[in-house]
Amino acid sequence: xxxxxxxxxxxxxxxxxxxxxxxxxxxxxxxxxxxxxxxxxxxxxxxxxxxxxxxxxxxxxxxxxxxxxxxxxxxxxxxxxxxxxxxxxxxxxxxxxxxxxxxxxxxxxxxxxxxxxxxxxxxxxxxxxxxxxxxxxxxxxxxxxxxxxxxxxxxxxxxxxxxxxxxxxxxxxxxxxxxxxxxxxxxxxxxxxxxxxxxxxxxxxxxxxxxxxxxxxxxxxxxxxxxxxxxxxxxxxxxxxxxxxxxxxxxxxxxxxxxxxxxxxxxxxxxxxxxxxxxxxxxxxxxxxxxxxxxxxxxxxxxxxxxxxxxxxxxxxxxxxxxxxxxxxxxxxx
Length: 334
Description:
The protein has helices at residues 7-15, 29-42, 61-77, 97-106, 120-128, 140-148, 179-189, 203-211, 233-239, 264-269, 281-294, 318-331; strands at residues 20-23, 47-52, 110-114, 132-137, 153-157, 163-164, 194-197, 216-218, 248-250, 258-260. It is of the alpha/beta class. The chain folds into two domains: 1-56 and 91-240 and 313-334, TIM Barrel, CATH 3.20.20.70; 57-87 and 241-312, no CATH class. Helix 2 (29-42) links the parallel strand 1 and strand 2.
């Protein structure tokens, strides 16, 4: 939930008995340190720090220019021109030595990996601090790699999940396994505890995941509308609108498959005229287009990540939501 999760929300979740999380994959080590320190000032309980472990993008000037040219008419409709060139917005944890050094120094209780796994050396250094390590898997092969790497728990990310698909290699065909099928497969085939993630919005979903053998459930979209979330008013409004009934997986926003609310960006992307640049280079264009549109009062180009359960979203404080989820999960008819 990079960009949406906040120290206040993570702390509220942890204080209420859950495991809060802050996403630092889209920022640098200095800002990540500040987020961790701010969260610790609000709670003395464990919380998760999530990092992105994507392959470093390969610059392709021709491909990137073709993408900008294809987007030019949309930019011009809002009185702007696209950027002259695209930039890599942030580093992968796979090569970010500053982020690694900071985590080793501050020693968060839990660290989770998305998009893949860091090197064995990086995993060893983190394990030596005593922190619990989690990693996302979208299929059995990725789960096996996670187990072989010595990670502690697997996050089973189903096709329903909002935000970026955690596939290790976006060039490999995606089996598109749903959360419940994937969870059961990993419980049956892995020795590690499994955390079910994707499309779970209430206690009924949590109870279903636990019934399949999951050790826990991870919810993201359910917290977007929380008071402490960093989602802006346009995002919150879109979450309550018709786009929530039609979430779509697209690469157009960032360069990697990601599920978001249907909007003007996803509609334009249905007939992509050229190949999308690699992640996160393409994100530079997506953010610039969103800024140009918003300057003209149009909010339909935002990265409004959300899972298929989005229509079940309930605005409230994060602590209150944890309490509601707990009561639902323990009182729903078996």
